[in-house]
Amino acid sequence: MTRDEFNVFCGGLKATSHVVQWGNSDVWKVGGKLFAVCGWHESDAAFTFKVGDVAFEVLGGEPGIRPAPYLASRGMKWLQVYEEGALSEASLRDHIVMSYDMAVGRLTKKLRAELGV
User: Fold this and answer.
1) Which of 31, 51, 61, 88 could be disulfide-bonded to 55 (CB atoms 3.0-4.6 Å)?
2) Would you tell me which CATH number, out of the four given (3.90.79.10, 3.90.1150.30, 3.40.20.10, 3.40.1280.10), belongs to the domain 3-109?
């Protein structure tokens, strides 16, 4: 997945917002909750997303995948895919959607209704 494809994909999810911050990273949120980042790595092609406990344990030590700098160091379950091919594009998309769903789940019922998510 390229950075442009990442941005198109994240932008296609309902009620998302995009900002560029943290040293030219593409940061995606839903209802103000972070769910995906592209950047934060010297190659500029690293993809960061939230995962559940099992995925964090299973994938966190795979080649080309690591606990996300800054986020995982604070005890949060975030992974960063920093090598091309470490995950298939389909799997990367699935993980981004799961991260989005986790962020939506943390929104209030009122805000979810307002956003239509």
Assistant:
1) 51
2) 3.90.1150.30
- Phi/psi of residue 21, nearest 5 degrees: -155, -175
68-114 confidence digits (pLDDT tens): 987 877 778 999 999 989 999 999 999 999 999 999 999 999 999 99
pTM: 0.92
For 3-34, what is each residue's pLDDT tens digit? 999 999 999 999 999 999 888 899 999 999 99
Each domain of the chain, given as residue ranges in start order, spans 3-109
